[in-house]
Amino acid sequence: MNKRILLASAMGAAAMLGTAQQAQGQAWIGQIVGDMMAQQQAAENTRLCRTGSSPVEKEIIEAQTPANATMQAYFAGQQNGTAPRSSFFAIDKHTAWSHDGKSLDQVSIDQGTDGLAAQGNVIAEQPYAFYRSFLHARAIGQWPVRDEAGNVIGVYNGFFVRRQGDWILRKLTLEDADDYSGPVEQFCDEPGDVLTYRIESSSAAMEYHDKRRTKAYQKLESERETLAKREARLAKRPNSQRHKANVQRSKDKVSKWQGEIVERQAAYDAAKAENDAALAERDALPAKIAAAKAELGITS
User: Fold this and answer.
1) DSSP letter string over 45-101?
2) What gap in Å lies between CA 218 and CA 233, rounded to an integer?
3) Pairwise CA distance, residues 186 & 131, whole Å
4) First vs last C-alpha separation in the chain
5) pTM (2 decimals)?
6) Other CB atoms closer than 10 Å to residue 157's CB: what's the count?
7) What letter does residue 136 receive in the DSSP assignment?
């Protein structure tokens, strides 16, 4: 009787162990699948970010509203001398404040005065342009500053990061009206990187698909020569199953390389279209800057 009880207990324990191991295996597989899906989503988000995609409007406003409040408080603090510059910045190795060739870092951030925040000047209530990164908790914005006569004397280009739920400055670049470089643009990691990435990635894609297309042409010609030889052999021995099979294999390879050529040509054309569009956008930058200056009323 005791032996039966022990045997039953052992069988029950083995069943429980098997169930536990099965559950662990399923959990492990689930984790692997989850990690793969997360990696794929991260790669897709990176691609979208680097090709200029922006977050939904709600997320942009979520960043713009507190970032604008930070800039308004910064300007008031600098104009009235009521708060140190560092109180509006994320102080780390990336901290930077620059104006007219002078640059301050995390150590020197509170030195000197802000020329745009002189008494009588007014900062725009809302940014002239504002963008949030699709990938990171980062944003950039541009705020014009006017003198008492209403003339734009310069702009603030603010680069923001989110810290403990708030949006604060990491970098702030001051441009005088004479040195205006144009409105800020959609970005991914750093201001200006999207257009650079589009040009470089499309150029690389064109080169890649062109090489693959050239290789496919070479393979096609080689296989056509092989097909001709095999068809000649088959013509001499029309009932040979081996020659028939060889001819069919060559025909399949010819079809394969023809399809490869079509595929690579389409991919090359798409990459070239993107490259042409990105280069055209780069070439249009002077006109875009001129249009922004006219809209802001910068006459210099």
Assistant:
1) HHHHHHTT----HHHHHHHHHHHHHHHHHHHHHHHHT-S-GGGGB--STT-EEEETT
2) 23
3) 6
4) 104
5) 0.78
6) 21
7) S
